[in-house]
Amino acid sequence: MAIREDQSRFKSIIKGKVRDDFKRYVTNGELIGRREDEFVKIPIPRIDIPTFRYGPKQNEQGVGQGDGDKGDGQGGKPGPGKGEAGDQAGEHMIEVEISMEELAEILGEKLELPKIQPKGAKNIFTEKNKYTGIAPVGPEGLRKFKQTYKKALARYISSGTYNPQDPAIIPIRRDFQYRTVKKTQMPYTKAVVIYMMDVSGSMGDEQKEIVRLESFWINTWLKKHYKGLETRFIIHDASAKEVDEDTFFKTSESGGTLISSAYKLCQQMIQSEYSSSEWNIYPFHFSDGDNWSGEDTRLCLTLLREFFLPHVNVFSYGQVESKYGSGQFLKDLQKEFGTDERLTLSQIEGRDKILSSIKDFLGKGK
Which of 36, 268, 286, 361 has the greatest number of C-beta atoms within 10 Å? Predict the structure, then answer.
């Protein structure tokens, strides 16, 4: 039981460390590079939980007693160290695992994100096991050791066989207690995230890294609410194409920019594969705000008004600041749609704005 309590305390300390340094983890990409399935390895300073350690008595002397001067080695002999002591504490890093679910919880707490209310597929249910109580029978994997011990202790006391001088408690079969499981039905909802990014020459490595970090945390939060989350990636300059995740963040082009090419491809994808009556749809578009012409911008506005906004949960546009980009597209969207809650706009001047941008995108709970 003591080991379990120490493990629980250690996990709480880890989560506390992640909360304290959360902005650093979000902005420098440490977590993304250490993903393994549903867990992330996080480097943190070494943590020691204080415990008492007992050893044999030697010459009836206690800790800190006996002869010896400061700096002596064990047994009064000089230590083997060389050089002078430094004035800075050493830092020993360790890697600990934390689940994506726990990361999502920390993200939600930090940004005070509302829970998402999924739409569609409310008449489809999936079964989930729920632990509802304690029973005297069950599989060994569900045995509750604390309750079993309490049951055995009560039996010893009631029968008069409990000896405080020799408090050994040995449970027998009738003392065993198990968790009971009840299958519950929960609504099953599906979701797809479609990321679109301008990869023309004005979107440099730093801009794409900001997009990579944001998309990781967006996915982390959405996976908390949708067990069957799908992710698609579209890149565009003057033309658009679907790519895998690795290509999405590494491709660089030097051509012009036609934003409508990405919107048209995204529209085709939704119409052919993701019915809005069955799917929760989240398109995200990232750009530095340059577009080839006012005519193409007007086409984008029409696509948003007539197709995307009526059919998706929310359409999100993030404008990543670039010294080569004009930023005009964000201004056009603001002018056309104002405060329409079906469209989320976020201006991302740099890495230190990533957290506030994530709150812009996810703070509506849609």
Answer: 286
